[in-house]
Amino acid sequence: MKLDSRRPDFAMQTRRHNNLEGLQRFKASTWVKLLQLPNPFSFDEALLLCPVSADEWLAWIPDHGEAILNIREFSY
Fold it and tell me: What span, in angstroms and rounded, lies between the C-alpha atoms of 7 and 75?
């Protein structure tokens, strides 16, 4: 099998750039305001732990536990 080094992979380069833009908007160890509570007894804030994807974060919500949140589910 030959490796074709002349064919650039533009799709992957663009995708990486977009992912970085999404991750740079938020930072780990930041408290954010939840726009909708996961349960009636949980707090209305969450602590961002680490990014899962360009638009999702693993977060800890007091009186609920860990949850994966889409960036549309919280604000600063």
Answer: 41
